[in-house]
Amino acid sequence: MTDSMLSDNSRRRTKQVLRFVCATAFTVLATRYTYKQMLSRKCMYQNYFLILHLQYLTNLILPTDIPKQFQRNDILQNVIPTNEARTALICASAVTLGISTMLTTGAAMVLNISSLEDFSVLIKSSIKNTIPNEKLLVIDESTTSIIDQIKQLADESDKQESNKDEDQNDPKK
């Protein structure tokens, strides 16, 4: 195994982690923006009543302007429904896009996928049950020796099983 293969693998991993971190940062920012928008919608009415109460305390409005018990106190502000819908759509889309991007980049990082070529090789190998392209595998000498030993043991056990089958099927014995 050469140093160029190791540096290539470390560059691939760094790129994958960087993509995941960027997706996470986007998700956090989108979530914070959505949270702020929700708070501003919630506080819209609370601020109105606070201002009304302060005006009452400073004698800027008459006490008759303050709603009494059983009177309607939900004074609506001028809100354009299309702007509210647009904001809700943007917030929901941003959070959904961020979460799906995090899931995609996280899965690609776990499966060691850096490009569409890597993805196609992985899918083809999983369909055909073969070993993926060897340039994607980083195998050192000790690992290759262990793989060779396992293959030899598997071949020996196959030969022994085939000999047993021949002995059982042989009518001379």
UniProtKB/TrEMBL annotation:
Residues 153-173 are annotated as: Disordered. The lineage of its organism: Eukaryota, Fungi, Dikarya, Ascomycota, Saccharomycotina. One of its GO terms (cellular component) is mitochondrion. This is Altered inheritance of mitochondria protein 11. It is a multi-pass membrane protein. The chain crosses the membrane at residues 17-35. The keyword Membrane applies. Keywords: Membrane, Transmembrane, Transmembrane helix.
